UniProtKB/TrEMBL annotation:
<feature type="compositionally biased region" description="Basic residues">
    <location>
        <begin position="461"/>
        <end position="472"/>
    </location>
</feature>
<feature type="domain" description="Carboxyltransferase">
    <location>
        <begin position="1"/>
        <end position="285"/>
    </location>
</feature>
<dbReference type="InterPro" id="IPR003833">
    <property type="entry name" value="CT_C_D"/>
</dbReference>
<feature type="region of interest" description="Disordered">
    <location>
        <begin position="437"/>
        <end position="472"/>
    </location>
</feature>
<dbReference type="GO" id="GO:0016787">
    <property type="term" value="F:hydrolase activity"/>
</dbReference>
<dbReference type="Pfam" id="PF02682">
    <property type="entry name" value="CT_C_D"/>
</dbReference>
<keyword id="KW-0378">Hydrolase</keyword>
<dbReference type="InterPro" id="IPR029000">
    <property type="entry name" value="Cyclophilin-like_dom_sf"/>
</dbReference>
<keyword id="KW-0547">Nucleotide-binding</keyword>
<protein>
    <recommendedName>
        <fullName>Carboxyltransferase domain-containing protein</fullName>
    </recommendedName>
</protein>
<dbReference type="InterPro" id="IPR052708">
    <property type="entry name" value="PxpC"/>
</dbReference>
<dbReference type="GO" id="GO:0005524">
    <property type="term" value="F:ATP binding"/>
</dbReference>
<dbReference type="Pfam" id="PF02626">
    <property type="entry name" value="CT_A_B"/>
</dbReference>
<keyword id="KW-0067">ATP-binding</keyword>
<dbReference type="InterPro" id="IPR003778">
    <property type="entry name" value="CT_A_B"/>
</dbReference>
């Protein structure tokens, strides 16, 4: 959730900045070390003791076998701290190339869940002798965790044509309060009023103006489930049918890891150029901290900026369009922050031909003949109904170049009205009620949409919405 704090914790103990560590939310555990270790705790301020004596955060600490390390509750702003251990946790298995835990789906990390009393984590056997000393990041250079945040974001993927100008002004000019529903999967906000919307319903997407035909969700996007806004952080769903109006830029993702219930925040609109400049500053800050830890001198290191004066040229959600040509549908290219681009076919209506086109485009982008520069920067794709969401490294790939390449692929794909797509048929059992369905419904009501005509889902509600079928 907070890559800046985790990166610095790893630097302090001598790890690569992307090494696995432990994320502690609001309050932490007590650890007994069975062997020597080097640790560092960064992030939100928390009570931090070794054998009952207070020790500083943001500092390299050498642990002896048998010592007890305790992390208590938060004592200030922010809500997450990060414990790095030299060498990481070598016995925790990789899952799809990562050791991160996704508790909602019970995969990754340590048995797919949060750590519990009695868990045993293996460390490396030997500590290098060159990692002596106790380097510490000075307090004035540590990221600040206020109770009122400024968060930089870019319009899109859906804004003009969906929200009124008054709605857009409300999003960017009002203080939004963080509700008690704030977690790794969603940070629900309390706006000053409900949107007025610029349309009466969601067309084929649904009866509410916030409904859309399903599409991929960018990380950090502000998603509207009905009239309720929710920021989607790192463990969010990757697709769905609710409108997303603005997306937090990558440079400010770390703030989403520290903002907590009761805090307030205000969006600031920035351009793509602003977003990339801020991203560069975060990287420069981390590089400077790394060099200072290695050299032992923090002289000349600049603190991480938490506020910014945007250029004002923030543009629109739709960055390019391609008109329909014969059997080739209209294409809109929508931005989702500085790392996502949504390729949308047609005009907000489901069409199986468009879904086939999404499949064909995705196949070309992920195929062996894709250019090397694309393979190096395209990290993920989410194809859904009439659109394809691209996850790419915006710091390495120029968006204009990507859009022009995508437009050229439309000419290459041509008329696909008679395309044949390989399909598979799955036969699955039908379950109306189960423990997993009940838990999923409850989780949806708590974190997404608490009130709807179809909630809570029960056998009776399914019976009411299922056409009767008589058999003789």
């Amino acid at each position: 959730m907070d890559p800046v704090a985790l990166s610095i914790a790893n630097m302090l103990v001598g790890n690569e900045k992307g090494k696995e560590g432990l994320e502690i939310t609001l309050s932490g555990p007590e650890w007994r070390f069975l062997g020597p270790a080097i640790v560092a705790l960064t992030g939100a301020p928390m009570d931090f003791t070794l054998d009952g004596s207070a020790i500083p955060m943001w500092t390299r600490k050498h642990i002896k076998a048998g010592q007890k390390l305790k992390i208590g509750k938060t004592t200030g702003g922010g809500c997450r701290s990060y414990l790095a251990v030299y060498g990481g946790f070598p016995k925790v298995a990789d899952y799809f190339g990562s050791k991160s835990t996704s508790p909602l789906v019970a995969i990754g990390g340590y048995q797919g869940r949060a750590l519990a009393p009695g868990d045993l984590l293996a460390m490396v056997d030997e500590i290098p002798k060159n990692l002596g000393g106790h380097p510490s990041v000075p307090e004035h250079l540590r990221p600040q965790y206020p109770t009122s945040w400024e968060i930089m974001a870019m319009p899109g993927p859906h804004q003009e044509g969906f929200l009124t100008e008054e709605d857009v002004d409300m999003i960017y000019s009002s203080e939004l309060k963080v509700s008690h529903n704030a977690s790794r999967s969603g940070i629900r906000l309390v706006p000053p009023r409900a949107p007025q919307w610029s349309r009466k319903d969601g067309g084929e997407g649904g009866s509410h103006p916030s409904n859309l035909v399903e599409y991929g969700y960018p990380l950090g996007t502000l998603n509207w489930t009905g009239d309720d806004p929710c920021i989607f952080p790192i463990d969010c769903p990757n697709f769905g049918g609710f409108l997303s109006s603005t997306t937090v830029i990558r440079a400010d993702w770390w703030k989403l890891g520290q903002i907590k219930a009761g805090n307030t925040m205000q969006y600031k609109r920035v351009s793509l150029e602003d977003a990339l400049n801020l991203r560069k500053k975060v990287e420069e800050y981390l590089v400077a901290i790394q060099k200072a830890i290695e050299s032992g001198s923090f002289e000349g290191v600049q603190a991480l900026e938490t506020t910014y004066s945007p250029s004002g040229d923030y543009g629109k959600a739709v960055v390019a369009e391609r008109p329909a040509r014969g059997n080739e549908p209209q294409v809109r290219y929508r931005q989702g922050g500085d790392d996502h681009l949504l390729v949308e076919y047609g005009n907000e209506q489901f069409d199986l031909n468009h879904r086939c086109r999404v499949t064909a485009l995705e196949k070309v982008l992920r195929g062996p003949d894709a250019p090397a520069w694309l393979k190096e920067t395209l990290t993920n794709t989410v194809g859904c109904c009439t659109s394809l969401l691209l996850f790419y490294d915006g710091a390495k790939l120029d968006r204009e170049r990507l859009v022009k390449y995508l437009q050229s692929l439309e000419d290459q794909l041509g008329d696909l009205s008679k395309i044949k797509v390989p399909c598979r048929r799955f036969r699955l059992p039908l379950s109306f009620e189960s423990k997993e369905q009940t838990e999923a419904t409850q989780r949806y009501m708590e974190t997404q949409r608490p009130h709807a005509p179809y909630l809570p889902i029960t056998s009776n509600s399914r019976r009411r919405t299922t056409p009767s079928r008589r058999t003789s």
